[in-house]
Amino acid sequence: MIKRSGSSRVAPADDVFAARKRKPVPHEFVLDALAPLGPETRPMFGCLAVYVEDKIVLILRDKPAPAQDNGVWLATTEEHHAALRPEFPNMRSIEVLGSGVTGWQVLPAEAPDFEEAALRACALIEAGDPRIGKVPGERRKRREAPAKRAATKKAPVKKAPVKKAEKAAAKRGGKATAKRGA
CA 160 → CA 48, 57, 147, 176, distances in Å? Predict the structure, then answer.
């Protein structure tokens, strides 16, 4: 498709085939530190998700608002927070995810030790620390299980409709004169 400007002239060919400008990589030094692991990146929530093998390990965020959550997001679980806190004293829950505690934690870019902490996280990832990183889709698989079970259940057998006389007799505690299903 050819872009047209305000006039009826065709846009120059250079504009048509020009590559779309990419956003700069936030906190690019993190990717440099993880380079020996061959990390993959994918856009996620307007940020940059970092994967090592099959695990998402970090999200790099540098957005204008809300700025307090800019930095390096650690993919972890709530059970590991206490063990990670001595290594990352400025680590905290991510505010844009809500008021509750989530598995994701942020190393805030505004912290005085931000670069040190981010590089320490990279070193832990390189060492294979199990406290950082999640395999995406694990939670989704657990959610799908009940749906699969429901699909394999036998359909309930439909009962013959109960006649009004039988219902009335059942309320009185007696038997109906007409037999069910007859």
Answer: 59, 57, 28, 15
Cα 48 from Cα 97, distance rounded (Å): 16
Q: Which helix (H) or strand (E) holds 47?
A: strand 47-52
Q: Is 181 left (phi over 0), alpha (psi -120 to 50) or beta?
A: left
Report the predicted TM-score, pTM, of the whole model to 2 decimal places.
0.65
Which residue, 108, 112, 38, is CA-closest to 74?
A: 108
Instruction: Bin 146: left if φ > 0, else alpha if -120 < ψ < 50, else beta.
Output: alpha
What number of CA atoms fall less than 13 Å from residue 79's CA on the CB side? 4
* Other C-beta atoms lying within 10 Å of the C-beta of residue 109: 19
- Report the alpha-carbon angle 126-129-130, nearest 5: 135
75-107 tens-digit pLDDT: 999 999 999 999 999 999 999 988 888 889 999
